[in-house]
Design goal:
The model has no long low-confidence stretch (mean pLDDT 93). The chain starts with a strand and ends with a helix. The protein contains 13 helices and ten strands. By secondary structure, it is α/β, with parallel strands linked by helices.
Length: 353
């Protein structure tokens, strides 16, 4: 039987796995056996089709001993995961190569698994999937992901990463080209892609579309998807009293007046396509980019800091206007409210050949 290895190694949240699971389910209908290599296999309300292996763990390191641990370039993310040291990177790629030898796949599908993409280059056909943030553009110089002057340290880290990758793999092509595999599909829409200005890519929306029209209700209750260890969790939940149910988004968003979340990508786009206003609390750089895009589209609001009961109530006072904008933008983005998965599956089948 033909096997496909579906892998994820960087990033938190369930979105990476859900995408891989959706692809696996489609491929299984064509008689292809899915094998998963996952950073984390502890999921809620998920049935995993196929065998599950632990993805190789990268050796983490700090960006800067002086305390500036902000990522400015995509290569900073790679730096954190040990790509700047040839010895560390070679061990990590060897771990992936051992896993490839064990599974013997005909195809690899990688979501935020850059080391695997490098390990498979020239050996196994590889399709790279993910949202815009997790797939760098196939260009030589990555644009900054932080709206601040680019420090020399970030430029130096980029040079270290590029030199290490070249030394370990022997590949002379720009890193952006290498990390896009044989094919890449951006599960996003251009307006939410931080690299949209410099990327020529095939956007395929999100795998969980389409969402029903008129899913929200201005007189309904709020819904929240927040991590319970977040230090403002109790304040937000006790003040706004949302439903905190984890389930299919088409179910939990039905009849809701607004959604409260950390600007995770799938949740954000689902609300955008469904026309539901959002109250966002981004927790990392990826979510910050998504939240910024939502704010620019006028479909979300972010309460002012410091976060208090008063600032929360002040933020939701803007909901009537945000709701109107959200409904208008849902109509604008109606084209993306469909499932483009067949395009991805067709490419996978062609590569398994």
């Amino acid at each position: 039987m033909t096997r496909v290895l579906l892998a994820w190694e960087i990033g938190g949240g369930q979105g990476h796995f859900h995408l891989l699971a959706a692809i696996a389910q489609k491929l299984e209908a064509f008689g292809i056996e899915p094998i998963f290599a996952l950073e984390n296999a502890q999921f809620k309300n998920c049935n995993i089709l196929g065998k599950v292996l632990q993805a190789p763990k990268a050796m983490m390191r700090s960006l800067d001993d002086k305390g500036d641990n902000k990522c400015y370039l995509f290569t900073d993310i790679l730096y954190i995961f040990g790509f700047s040291t040839a010895l560390t990177l070679s061990f990590h790629l060897k771990a992936w190569q051992n896993l490839i030898d064990l599974v013997k796949p005909s195809l690899i599908i990688a979501d935020y698994a850059p080391a695997l993409v490098l390990a498979a280059k020239g050996k196994i056909p590889t399709v790279v999937v993910g949202n815009g943030f997790s797939i760098p553009p196939p260009i030589k110089d990555f644009p900054p992901i932080r709206p601040l002057p680019l420090p020399n340290a970030a430029i130096h880290r980029q040079a270290e990463v590029e030199a290490s990758v070249k030394q370990v793999t022997g590949f002379d092509a720009p890193l952006g080209y290498l990390l896009n595999g044989d094919r890449s599909f951006i599960f996003s829409i251009p307006e939410l892609d931080p690299y949209t200005a410099v990327r020529k890519a095939e956007y395929v929306g999100i795998h969980s579309a389409p969402f029903p029209e008129n899913l929200g209700n201005e007189r309904g209750s709020a819904w929240a998807y927040l991590t319970q260890d977040w230090h403002h969790y109790s304040l937000v939940v006790e003040t706004l009293k949302p439903e905190c149910i984890f389930d299919d988004l088409k179910i939990v968003l039905k009849g809701k007046s607004f959604a409260i979340h950390h600007a995770g990508f799938i949740t954000s786009v689902a609300c955008l396509l469904a026309g539901i206003p959002q109250l966002v609390f981004p927790k990392d750089m990826e979510k910050w980019h998504t939240a910024k895009a939502l704010l620019n589209l006028g479909v979300a609001v972010a309460p002012q800091e410091p976060l208090t009961k008063e600032s929360l109530l002040s933020a939701i006072a803007h909901l009537p206007q945000i709701t109107q904008n959200a409904q208008q933008q849902a109509k604008r983005f109606a084209y993306w409210n469909q499932n483009f998965m067949d395009k991805v599956i067709q490419a996978c089948l062609e590569l398994t050949g």
